[in-house]
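Supplementary Methods, section 5.1.

A reviewer requested that the exact input to the structure prediction be made available. We therefore reproduce it here, unchanged from the version used in the analyses.
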Amino acid sequence: MAHVRSNCKNVSTSISLDEKLFGLIDDYRFEKRKDNRSAAIADLILKGLKYEALLQKKREKVTC
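The structure derived from this sequence is encoded token-by-token as follows.
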């Protein structure tokens, strides 16, 4: 469940990552010059969701 703080527009949640994935996220953060780890994770999630939507469209074209 997400936590909503009264002094912040964003909701927050906790996630657990293995050390290798954590390191990859930090590498991405510094390569892309993101302000913080949350921004890097949010960017990666959005890219993953866009990619999944693209794959879904391709699947739908194949079945038509």
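The longest helix spans residues 37-63. These observations are discussed further in the main text.
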